[in-house]
Amino acid sequence: MEVIVEYLMFFAALLLLPVAISFFIAAALKRSKKLAKLGLALAAVSLAVLVRQHYSEFWRVDSCMDSGGRYNYEQHECEF
Questions:
Q1: pLDDT at position 4, please?
Q2: Residue 79 in domain
Q3: Count: domains in the chain
Q4: Structural contact between residues 77 and 3, judged by C-beta atoms closer than 8 angstroms
Q5: What pLDDT does 1 receive?
Q6: Residue 75 counted as domain residue
């Protein structure tokens, strides 16, 4: 179940980037600061989710090893 949530977050972040870019384009055409700020906020959220997804396995492994366990990469779980 956790893997499904991670994939959904990844795809949502990927789909959010073109939306952010379209807000930047609309802001440039209409010279609207509100649209530019909205585009920037959407791009920041999208990039934050993508960065979190990129480092999520690292943090899982790190917390497993900090608690004295051994991380099984094949099953993606912590073993004690």
A1: 84
A2: no
A3: 1
A4: no
A5: 67
A6: no
pTM to 2 decimals? 0.67
Residue 37 has pLDDT above 80, yes or no: yes
Asked, for residue 19, whether it belongs to a domain, the answer is: yes
- Strands (DSSP E) contained in the chain are 70-72, 77-79
Distance of alpha carbon 52 from alpha carbon 49, whole angstroms: 5
Q: Which two tokens stand for residue 53?
A: 């997804």
Domain interval for residue 41: 2-66
CA distances from 26 to 3, 48, 49, 53, 58 (A): 35, 23, 24, 29, 38
Q: Is residue 12 part of a domain?
A: yes
Name residue, tokens 């004690």.
80
